[in-house]
């Protein structure tokens, strides 16, 4: 079968002929891949910044944001059948029996760091015609979501971030009941840093949760991303035309910041305007080639007496995959003409290098497999 792989030793990326996998265990499922989203992680792997092939393999098959169709199931699989659509998880548990997180199916909180990840760390990814996977890592998707279900994995990042934020804020007695309400963000302000797919999906999630939502991004208006932000009922502000002081004056105190732009200096500036008891969530790692300074004394001067919290999060677990699928259904009902616009273009496998080796304009780019 055909697959798209990166060769770290020879620094090559191309389509390879890879053995087609077959079901070997009763709880396995054979999948025909339909679509695989491309993100910054894939481009970093292609730039050889990180990424580890499986043992005894000279290459790593790319791709971790996938939508697939079931073609065969093992004899112990009862809730899936050929023709069903599924979204697979990315991270798999470590083998250490002492890792309480992985033993509890929360591999996204793995305590040992020896987890594996499809298309990233020691496991082949989904940019292949077929994959065999364990049924426990597959999430059924309604066929009505077939055109947007490839957005599930990037949405899980915001889902996990929101769950953690609401759990943390239960420390505040007046927020305990709000956390379980239909709109737990009612009366609160959320700022999303960045208008890429992770940022825009996060903005959609915060809007339906009742937050007064702002998206602070580089590009000047008018642009397609700003139009999408306006269409979902949020407010787009350009960092190019609205400097930090003007941004602070317009937005006021911020209760939740969701960083999704890989721009640490700007994120630190926004941190200075976080409200009392507020939460700042980082989802992207900083670029070590672009160091930034931080006034630790000034930061702690706000952080400590104002009971603020900074957390980092990215990879999601089973529950957040399920909630992402459910919320994609909500988004599609609420914004049927807007949600599909997050996918800028679909590319055949033969053209995958165009989006793996560089970042074209637009929002989300998808490689079509099947």
Q: How many domain regions? A: 2
- If classified by CATH, what would the architecture of the largest domain be? Alpha-Beta Complex
Oligomeric status: single chain
Please, what is the average pLDDT? 93
> Kindly, what is the distance between the CA atoms of the first and last residues, rounded to a whole number of angstroms?
12 Å
CATH superfamily of the largest domain: Medium-chain alcohol dehydrogenases, catalytic domain
Element string (H = helix, E = strand): EEEHEEEEHEEEEHEHEHEHEHEHEHEHE
The fraction of residues in strands falls at: 25-35%
- The number of helical runs is 10
Q: Unreliable runs, pLDDT <50, ≥5 residues? A: none
What does this structure look like?
InterPro entries: ADH-like_N, Glu_dehyd_C, GroES-like_sf, NAD(P)-bd_dom_sf. The protein has 2 domains: 2-141 and 337-368, Quinone Oxidoreductase, Chain A, domain 1 (Alpha-Beta Complex), CATH 3.90.180; 154-312, Rossmann fold (3-Layer(aba) Sandwich), CATH 3.40.50.720. The chain contains 10 helices and 19 strands. It has helices at residues 40-46, 100-103, 152-168, 197-208, 224-231, 244-251, 264-271, 296-303, 318-334, 353-356, and strands at residues 2-7, 12-17, 28-38, 60-61, 65-73, 85-88, 91-92, 116-118, 122-123, 130-134, 138-141, 189-193, 212-217, 235-238, 254-259, 274-282, 309-312, 343-348, 364-368. Strands 3, 5, 6, 10, 11, 18 and 19 form a 7-stranded mixed β-sheet that branches. Helix 8 links the parallel strand 16 and strand 17 (309-312). The longest helix is centred in the middle third of the chain and has 17 residues, at 152-168. The protein is globular and about 60 Å long. The model has no long low-confidence stretch (mean pLDDT 93).
């Amino acid at each position: 079968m055909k697959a798209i792989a990166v060769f770290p030793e020879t620094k090559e990326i191309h389509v390879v002929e890879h053995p087609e996998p077959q079901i070997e265990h009763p709880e396995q499922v054979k999948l025909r891949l339909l679509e695989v989203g491309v993100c910054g992680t894939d481009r970093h792997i292609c730039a050889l910044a990180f990424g580890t092939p499986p043992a005894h393999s000279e290459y790593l098959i790319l791709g971790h944001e996938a939508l697939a169709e079931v073609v065969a199931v093992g004899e112990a699989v009862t809730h899936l059948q050929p023709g069903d659509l599924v979204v697979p998880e990315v991270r798999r548990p470590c083998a250490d029996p002492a890792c309480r997180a992985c033993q509890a199916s929360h591999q996204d909180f793995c305590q040992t760091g020896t987890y594996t990840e499809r298309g990233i760390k020691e496991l082949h990814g989904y940019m292949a015609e077929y994959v065999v996977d364990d049924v426990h890592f597959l999430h059924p998707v309604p066929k009505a979501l077939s055109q947007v279900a490839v957005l599930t994995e990037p949405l899980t990042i915001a889902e996990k971030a929101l769950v953690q934020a609401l759990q943390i804020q239960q420390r505040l007695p007046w927020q305990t009941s709000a956390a379980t309400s239909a709109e737990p963000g009612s009366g609160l302000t959320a700022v999303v840093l960045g208008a890429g797919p992770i940022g825009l999906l996060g903005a959609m999630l915060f809007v339906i949760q009742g937050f007064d939502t702002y998206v602070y991004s580089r590009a000047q208006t008018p642009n397609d991303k700003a139009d999408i932000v306006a269409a979902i009922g949020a407010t787009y502000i350009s960092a190019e035309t609205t400097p930090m002081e003007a941004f602070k004056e317009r937005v006021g105190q911020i209760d939740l910041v969701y960083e999704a732009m890989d721009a640490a200096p700007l994120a630190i500036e926004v941190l200075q305007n976080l409200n009392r008891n507020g939460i700042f969530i980082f989802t992207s790692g900083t670029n070590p080639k672009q160091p930034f300074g931080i006034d630790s004394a000034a930061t702690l001067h706000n952080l400590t007496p104002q009971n603020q919290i900074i957390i980092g999060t990215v990879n999601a677990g089973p529950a957040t995959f399920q909630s992402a699928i459910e919320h994609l259904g909500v988004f599609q009902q609420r914004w049927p003409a807007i949600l599909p616009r997050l996918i800028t273009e679909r590319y055949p496998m033969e053209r995958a290098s165009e989006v793996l080796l560089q970042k074209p304009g637009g929002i989300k780019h998808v490689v079509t497999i099947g």
